[in-house]
Amino acid sequence: MLKESLDTFEGGERETSLNAATMTRVALMAAVTAVAAQITVPIEPVPFTFQVLAVILSGLLLGPRYGALAMAVYLFVGAVGVPVFAGFKGGLGIVFGDTGGYLLAYPLAAAVAGLAAHAVARDPRRRALLAGLLCGCAALVVIYALGATWLSVIAGLSPAAALAAGVLPFVVLDLVKVVLATLVAVAAAPAIAVSRT
User: Fold this and answer.
1) What is the per-residue DSSP string for 15-68?
2) 175/139 Cα distance (integer angstroms)
3) Which of 112, 111, 143, 136 is nearest to 46 (CA)?
4) E strand or H helix that includes residue 172
5) Integer Cα distance of 107 and 116 in angstroms
6) Is the confidence at residue 8, as pLDDT, over 70?
7) How many angstroms separate the CA atoms of 70 and 35, rounded?
8) What's the CATH code of the domain at 72?
9) Can you count the helices (H) and strands (E) in the chain?
10) Read out DSSP for 150-161?
11) What's the number of domains the chain is made of?
């Protein structure tokens, strides 16, 4: 009985410690996304940024739940007016503007990428890379689908025009970002996997 109580007490301490570590990682990935948003090439109507890399990396490193939470934190911070979006912009006008669909897709995309987090952290390198690439590409599809649909509706573009403006110019470079995110995650995830919940 005493051993069970001691195990419970120690487990409780460890759980608190893990929660603090997880919260730190969530905040860090939200901050990384904010920095990635500032590396931008202003293309109209959708700017080129490195946010996709950060979104996918968040999912691959933190898993579906905490990757999505990191992106929700990022969106919340930007929505309240902190200039964390591309071009040092913030506020609800950006979230509900022409490109808001891309931003709103980030939590779901991070969750989709996060489906590979276990494999990325624990599987052999080849399988980890494959899982990361597949889930990263699926996350990219989520971003494109929600972003282009939103762009079409809000900007009054035809679906073809929204795809031409908001997807096609970015596909090749975004696939490179998926590869980079996967490579970073496969290298880093085993070191942080122990502290994931």
Assistant:
1) HHHHHHHHHHHHHHHHHHHHHHHHS-B--SSS-B-SHHHHHHHHHHHHHHHHHH
2) 11
3) 143
4) helix 171-192
5) 15
6) no
7) 14
8) 1.10.1760.20
9) 8, 0
10) HHHHHHT--HHH
11) 1
Q: Tokens representing 28?
A: 């860090």
Residues 6+ away with beta carbon under 8 Å from 116: 59, 60, 128, 131, 132, 134, 135, 136
93: its two tokens: 């006008």
Q: Is 85 helix (H, G, I), strand (E, B) or coil?
A: strand
96 SS3 class: coil
Report the amino acid identity of residue 94: I
Cα dihedral 14, 132, 188, 110 sign: negative
First to last CA, the chain: 27
pLDDT computed for residue 10 by the predictor: 42
Nearest alpha-carbon partner for 45 in 125, 1, 100: 100
Q: For 122-180, what is each residue's pLDDT tens digit? A: 999 999 999 999 999 999 999 999 999 999 999 999 999 999 999 999 999 999 999 99
**Residue pair 95/79 in contact by the 8 Å Cβ criterion:** yes
How far is Cα 58 from Cα 80, in angstroms, rounded to an integer?
22
Distance from C-alpha of 178 to C-alpha of 1, rounded to nearest angstrom: 50
CA distance 181 to 42: 22
pLDDT in tens, 41-79: 777 767 788 999 999 999 999 999 999 999 999 999 999
Domain extent at residue 130: 2-195
